[in-house]
Amino acid sequence: MDANLVGTVISDTETPTFETVRIKLKAGRDVKPGVIVKMWMQREESSILFARIRGGYEKNPNKNPDRISVEDALGLKSPHISEELSTDIYRLVEADLIGELINGSIRSPENLPNSGADVYIADSTEIVNVLGLIDEQENGLYIGDTIGGLKTKIVLKKESIQRHFFIGGTTGSGKSYAMGVVAEELLKQFLPIIFIDTQDEYSKFVEAHNGKVVKPGLDFTVRISSLTEEEFIKLLPEITQKNSLHSEVAGRAFDNLKTRLVNRDIQKFGVPDIQQEINTTAVDLSSKPGDAPRLAEAVQRKLNSLANDPMFGDGVNWREYMHPCLAINCKNMTSKQLQTLATVILRELQSLRLRGHIPPYVVVVDEAHLFVPQGETSPCKQILLEGVRIGRHHGICMVLMTQSPVDIDKSVIRQCNTRMIFALEPDQLEAIKGVKSDASDEMLRALPKMPRGTCLLSGTYESIKHTIPVKIRERYTEDSEGGKTPDIFAEMNDKWIDEIEKLK
To answer: Which element (helix H / strand E) includes 73?
Structure first.
């Protein structure tokens, strides 16, 4: 018997249809969920139908509840009868039809499967074609291999990064490791990568690839002029409705300088320039001329916190910093600082790219739910939404990562045409059902049980045509995994037990 022959198409009251087929497995043969199988159709036009295994069950009348109850009551144990020697023991699997090969081209299924047709495991070339992938590793992004069936390399078209990636999974599921694999593939294509690294997980990776690791306010600064007037006002302490005049004075000063910058009357401005401009706007907005100095002084005091914030300064030459890769270590920053920093960085990069001053680039945003929260606004939500919306037309590529899909704006996930979903809890799974592509409910229910480093790879027709379970390949870069869970027990033994004993 052909080693790839696994079963036979059966007919019942519900199948086969244009969507679903049931297959009786040959004795001793097995398939896993997600495996792609094929069956030849012989009609007016010869074609091959492809299906993805969804689930299955075994029928064994010798082990039905009544028989087991009798055995238990009488203390008997009936002999095991193997599937090969039985005429009424069999296993049945159900599969979703996903494609049809005819005249060398893949199309949606247009023929009903023939009942009685032999079913075979699809070969690697067929799997690549039906999923819309490529088979040349050097020309694409090799991220892993199929699970079950014939081992097939999953190589995405390199252009898929221009339509953005979404990576979701609970802590420890392997999403950060997978991001490292994707980054290795992108660096082989010479695309600069910028990590907005909230947990310092990519410093080792970046250093291993001769990139730069920088901390805001220590190794570089950003320009306050990259904020909008509204974002600038929100950074000022104690600006409330009670002192709306202060807000108006500060906002007018900022807007005046911004207008001069746009008109190229000035090349840049910082906090000292805003403080100086406040003297003018205070005069214009004071009800009495004598009140202007006090008003200006009161507003300038509110700018002191920004003047002393090391994050703001003359900015950075992104063209020098970004190649080959850059990790911006944002660990220990507050949520407000994170959002402000990301807003400025993303806006500066976008502006430079739209003017052709920097090459195409990839931005990796870790903990993306902090920046594009569901149901609320944030300082950088608009710029991120704009980035994923216009990015593919301008060489701006995004990778958004989160352990909490339930908290991220779903419109952003929909804009990401390639999605890698690792193990998630049931409530998180519910949040991604609207963007599950053609993943079956069985595939989603299996997600929480999937081993570390295994994901459901899905997307749109341009990236990967059908959802498939994938085992992420090993990284090429040695000692570059920065997101490992620390061994707290080893630390206790090496350091703290002796310290604790000294205190007794």
So the answer is: helix 65-74
The mean pLDDT of 103-114, rounded to a whole number, is: 88
CB count, 10 Å around CB of 381?
18
The one-character DSSP state at 14 is: S
> pLDDT (tens digit, 9 = 90+) per residue, 144-164?
999 877 889 999 999 999 999
d(CA 184, CA 438): 28
User: How confident is the model at residue 256, as a pLDDT?
Assistant: 93
Q: What is the DSSP letter of 406?
A: G
DSSP state of 84: G
CA distance 465 to 462: 7
Q: Provide the strand spans (E) within 373-464.
A: 396-402, 418-421, 454-459
Length of the chain in terms of residues written = 504
Q: Is pLDDT of 489 > 70?
A: yes
497 beta partners: none
Q: Long-range contacts: 478-485, Cβ < 8 Å, 24+?
A: 478/208, 479/204, 479/208, 480/180, 480/204, 480/205, 480/208, 481/176, 481/177, 481/180, 481/204, 481/205, 482/176, 482/200, 482/201, 482/202, 482/203, 482/204, 482/205, 483/176, 483/177, 483/199, 483/201, 485/172
Q: What is the pLDDT of residues 433-479, one digit of tens each?
A: 767 778 888 888 887 788 889 999 998 877 899 999 999 999 998 76
pLDDT at 108 over 70: yes
Question: What average pLDDT does the segment 261-267 reach?
Answer: 89
* 3-state percent helix, strand, coil for the chain, nearest multiple of 5: 40, 20, 35
Q: Which residue in this structure is represented by tokens 């945003």?
A: 365
Distance between CA 214 and CA 220 in Å, rounded? Answer: 7
For β-strands 140-146 and 165-168, DSSP reports them as unpaired
Cα gap 82→80, rounded to integer Å: 6
Q: What token pair was written down for 37?
A: 């199988």
Instruction: Give the integer Cα–Cα distance in Å for 484 and 482.
Output: 6
Q: What predicted TM-score, i.e. pTM, was given to this entire model?
A: 0.86
Spatial CB neighbours of 123, under 8 Å, sequence gap ≥ 6: 4, 150
